[in-house]
Amino acid sequence: MWQLLPPAALLLLGKSESLADPSKAVVLLDPPWNRVLKNDHVALKCQGDYRVEDNSTKWWHNGTRISSQTSSYIIADAKVEDSGEYECQTGLSALSDPVKLEVHIDWLLLQATKWVVNVGEPIQLKCHSWKKTPVVKVQYFQNGRGKKYFHQNSDFYIPEAKLEHSGSYFCRGIIGTKNESSESVQIIVQGPGTSQTVSSFFPPWHQITFCLVMGLVFVVDTWLYFSVQRHLQNSEEWRNGKVTWSKGP
């Protein structure tokens, strides 16, 4: 198959493979919640390969480089302006995908490890209070209906997600003498094969671009090949005196 490809196409293929070599760094949240309250403590950890002589890490917040060069970026006292997208990069890794952090101001906040889950995966919800203020008589709601009640604040855990677990969730509890509720958030449960079906019909844009470029290069190389062959044939006929003349009309 490789011998059928024109030289320019092989060169382009080699370059595309070399560009795909570096592995991406990964940003992890600790604790693993991407929605937090003001004054919370958050640690963002960068996982990636380092050079032997250089273990520094580059961090970005909303596209702007930040000064930290350690593998963990610590937010000791979260503020609303700390919200946004975080990216990192190590010496031997490509830039990570962005991880979004949301800092809210409220008494209660519903947290989840994932907002989009596949059927069969676990769902973990936490009714988080500001400055870890004690909360009692905690209820979790789905689409306005009570799903779970705890006298003392506890996480709501669904071992295996089903399609009917999709919906709008919030929690409610008693803080002191006040009945407080969190904002509602959406949790989506995907059926089996959902993501594969979409990707099979719609390949990633870089694959489409690569195929178009390969096709164009193949057409140009083929045209050049036949053009050169025709030119060489004409030159050979001229040298051998085989040029023929036709009468005019």
How many individual helices?
Answer: 3
Helicity range of the residues?
10-25%
- How large is the share of residues in beta strands? 35-45%
- What is the end-to-end distance? 49 Å
Point out poorly predicted stretches: 1-21, 196-206, 241-249
> Which CATH class of the domain at 108-190 applies here?
Mainly Beta
Rg from alpha-carbon coordinates: 30 Å
Helices and strands, in order, run as HEEEEEEEEEEEEEEEEEEEHH
- Approximate shape: extended
Query: CATH superfamily of the domain at 108-190, called what?
Result: Immunoglobulins
CATH architecture of the domain at 108-190: Sandwich
Largest sheet: 6 strands, mixed
**SS-based structural class?**
alpha+beta
What number is the mean pLDDT? Answer: 81
Care to count the β-strands?
Answer: 19
Return the CATH topology of the domain at 108-190. Answer: Immunoglobulin-like
Key phrases:
6-stranded mixed beta sheet, disordered C terminus, alpha+beta, 249 residues, 38% strand, single chain, Immunoglobulin-like, 5-stranded mixed beta sheet, 3 helices, disordered N terminus
Descriptive overview:
This is Low affinity immunoglobulin gamma Fc region receptor III-A. The chain is an alpha+beta fold and 249 residues long. The chain is 22% helix and 38% strand. It is built from three helices and 19 strands. The strands form five sheets. Strands 12, 14, 15, 17, 18 and 19 form a six-stranded mixed β-sheet that branches. A five-stranded mixed β-sheet has the order 3-10-8-5-6, with no helix packed on it. Helix 1 (7-19) packs antiparallel against helix 3 (205-239).
